[in-house]
Give the backbone structure.
Amino acid sequence: MARTVRFLTYEFQIRAMRRAHSMTLQLKHDKAFVNHNWVAAESGRTFQVFSPSSEEVVSTVPDMDENDAAKAIQAAHKAFLTWGQTTGKERSVILRKWYELLVTNQEELVKLNSTESGKPLCEAQAEVSYGNSLIEWFSEEARRIHGQVISSPVKTKEIVLIRQPLGVVSLITPWNFPHAMITRKAGAALAAGCTCVIKPAEDTPLTALALAKLAAEAGVPPGVINVVTCDRPGAAAVGRQLCQHPLVAGISFTGSTAVGKLLYSNCAAGVKRIALELGGNAPFIVFSGADLDKAVDGAIACKFRNSGQTCISANRFLVQEDVFDEFVNKLEKKMKDLVLGDPLSTSSRIGPLINLSQTAKVIGMVNDAIEKGAEVRLGGKLATSLGQRFCEPTLLLKVDPSMLCYNQEIFGPVVVCVKFKTEEEALSIANSTKSGLAGYFYTNDINQAWRVAKALSTGMVGINEGLISTAEAAFGGIKESGFGREGCHHGIDEFSYVKYLCFGLSQL
Ligand code: SIN
């Protein structure tokens, strides 16, 4: 009887999820966006977009190929001839208007985001606010793209440096932050005076189309923002075109290291500018003497943001031996409060993983660890009663370097805890990876804070802090996590170049 009641409850939940996801969304579009026109693929092909929670089709969009991408690049090139000549103030006004429309349409953007990415509403809300703030930020930065007058070594020459926009840029964006990864790139590109062709991930094209629609409404001229949608099988050819087309000046990519390397090599032939924000394998170190409650809160925020599907998510928790048990007990207690469920329910904190292959990868890592002797303190399997993509918040102990979850980016709600004795040992484990995106540590020793912050081989460090992303700061990695910075005033650097003007003067 109890089993039947539980089953009926799950059935009810799933039906409710489906009803919520089938709602009409005004910003949902089923065509690509090129030169302010809603267009189909030249071939007429389309592909389906699924809700990760209900697994139902939420839309179909054009499955474009490299010829469709070329048309978008040509439109962006034509637009650059005028957009590239506008003043920073003119671009600032339009970007500000875009930001205001994003805020006005926030509620719908949140629903759309949650529907296609499977993020719980609270997460989608956080992403949309963060994504919007990047357009606000770059609307302000557009007016502060300055050159420099350099002291000349001779009286007969004056040296001036000016900043110019690159031209047409290709923005290839991931599914884990379908809103913010576009605004972080497109905001900077447009502020610098570039025009762009966006290729969103095949799992989450709807947010990209909604953003482009609002940009057009805000007064972004035709051709300045274009969105080319394509399914996974055609993505490599479209990606190659977006790197190699002669009218493309540069690309910016966020996604896996493997794809980043491919795009990097695609860019080599034309010596294109490239910015890469690739995978991470973030250490999260807890030193004895740290405020453990604060460390646990930071761990939850950092690890479970977007169900662990975040490049800067903590991947390996390194905990000093004398506080190991206490930290793990406190963490386990907090993890038990994390509600796994329907993303559109306000009580859910963890949603489904994006797709079946991602789910298989995460659960494969958990099983690999279990087979090799890891202890499952919490979770450890799929919550199949909710659907095929819901992974229980999992806490693994007795993890060692032979296990996949120790070496690879997990990208799921799985915490892996490792014990260490000394600061030197912690740093050696933390830095023993080819990735170098973010690192985190908790300590109450100011000398240790400075020492460890400098010693971590990562582009970003959270010190007694688990949430570090903000429009004002420079986001980016080192080593195989890529190069280039996003957000901050440095974000503009990726979309502009310094031109040196040498004025020859007559002898005074
Ligand atoms: C990412 O996961 O790639 C970006 C996350 C962020 O901006 O915080």
In short: The chain has two domains: 21-278+482-498, 282-470.
